[in-house]
Specification:
Elements: H1 21-36, H2 42-45, H3 49-60, H4 66-81, E1 85-90, E2 93-96, E3 111-113, E4 116-131, E5 136-146, H5 171-183, E6 189-194, H6 201-206, E7 212-217, H7 230-235, E8 241-247, E9 258-272, E10 285-295, E11 304-309, H8 316-327, H9 330-342, H10 354-367, H11 369-377, H12 387-390, H13 393-406, H14 422-432, H15 446-470
Parallel strand pairs: 1-6, 6-7
Antiparallel strand pairs: 1-4, 2-4, 3-4, 4-5, 7-11, 8-9, 9-10, 10-11
Helix pairs in contact: 1-10, 4-10, 9-11, 11-14, 11-15, 13-14, 14-15
Amino acid sequence: MIELMSPLNILPDYIGKLGDLRSERRGMKLWNKLSLHPSSTIRQLASNKAEQKAYYRFLNNDKIKEEQLINESSQRMSKLSKGRHLLCLQDTCEINLGKHKGRLNENSGLGRSDKSDTSHCFKLHPGLVLDVQGLNPIGFSHIKLFHRPEEMPDRIQRRYKQQPITEKESYKWIEVAQKSKEILKDAASVTFIEDREGDIYEQFAMIPDEKSHLLIRSRTTRKLRNGNSLYKEVEAQNIAGTYTIDLPTDSRKSQYKRQAEIALRFIECEIKCPYNLRNKGYPESITLTCISVKETGKVTNPVDWKLLTTHKIDNYQEALTIVEWYSARWYIEQLFRILKKQGFGIEETELENGWAIRKLVIMQMTALLKILQMNIAYADPEEGQPIEDVFDKEQIEILKLMNTKLQGKSVKLQNHHNPKRTKWAAWVVGRIGGWKGYDSQGPPGVVSLKRGLDRLSYIIEGTKLIKDVGTP
C-alpha cells in the first residue's frame, strides 16, 4: 500500500536519533525555525539570546554527526517510497565560503574549491526524489557532503586515469545511487537522472537491475560493439516525432528566447567497454537506448542532447516521456539556487566552523522543500500537489483568511487557482511576500515565496498568542 503524502513526512523527528534528548529538542526547534524563516544567520532565526546560544551549541556539538541528520532524512524518504515509481535526481553544488576565509576554523570539513587552493568550501551531492506521478519532490534518498583536502595531489600526480573508480571523486554518482537503492528498495521502480558528469561506464555496469534504471545525458560519443560511433548511429535514424517548446533567455548559455521545434530519434545499441577498463571485471559491452534530442532549423546554440538510458523504448511517446523525465533535472538546480543566493543564503552564514555549516546545510535541504514545491506548482498545468501534502490544517486555515484579505476587486487580482492544489497556496504566500498578484507580470519568485513564509509564520504565531491570551 502506498503511504499517503502529508506535511508530517517533511518534518524531521530527531527524538531518539542523536543520542541526547536536550540536543534532539534543540534540533527540532532549529529546523522549525528554518522551515518558517529561511535563513543562514542564527541571529535572525533566534527569538532571543538564550535561543541563539542554544542553536550555536547544537551546530557546534561534535557529538552530533552529519551522518545522523542525513540518516534521519533518508529514513523518512524510505517510508514514502513503498510501491511508488520514482525519479532520483543527482547533481553537485559547491558551497563557497571564500568571503569569510579569514575567520573560518582550520581543519573543520572545508577544502579546496574548483578555482582556488585555499580551504574554504565543501561539496554537496544529494539524491532528490520525485514521484513520477506529477513529478512532485517528496524527499532525499541520500545527501553526500565532501571536501578536497588542501594537500591533495593533482590528477597527474595521482595518475587519475589509472585509479579505480572507488578512489575517484566521480564515484559520488555511483555511491549516492547505491545508497539510494538501499533506501528506496520498496519502490516499484527508481530511475536515476544525472547530467554529463554521470556518464561513467562503471555506473552502467554496477547500478541497473530489474527495477533500477539510469537516465544520463551523454558526455561524448562512444564506440559501439558493431564498430560504429554512437552519435553517428543515432543521427542516422529516421525522426520518430517532433514537438515544440518555449525556450527562455539564458545569458549563461548564450540562449535567446524563442520557440524551438525538437526532433526525436532513438536507437538501442551496445556500447563497448573502454580500453582502460578491460580485464577489470566489467562486461565487454552494455545494451542501452540512446535518444537524440535535436533542435531543427538554423539557430545559434541549438538544443542538442544525447540521452542514455537503461529503459527499453519502443515508440515516440515512450521516448518523449523519458525526455520529460530528464527535463525534471532542472528542479535540483533550482534547489541549489534556493539554498544559495535566492533563499537561505548559505554562503553568507556567520558560522565559523565548517562542520557546523555542513550540518546546517543538511537541515536547510529538507526545510526548503516547501519553497521548491510551491515554485514547481506555479509552472505545473495541474497546479502542483494537493495542498494537504505541503501545508497542515492550521496553515491552510490561515491561508484561507489571508486569501480573502489579499484578493483585489478586479478580476485580474483574484486567486483563480484550485484551492485544493499547492498553486493556490503559492499565490497567497507570494502575495504575503510582496508579489503583486498579477500573472501577467510573471509568477511569484523564490524570494517572494521565502518572504511570504516568513510573514506567514508571524501571522500564525500572533493567532496562537491571541488564542492563548483569550483562553480563561
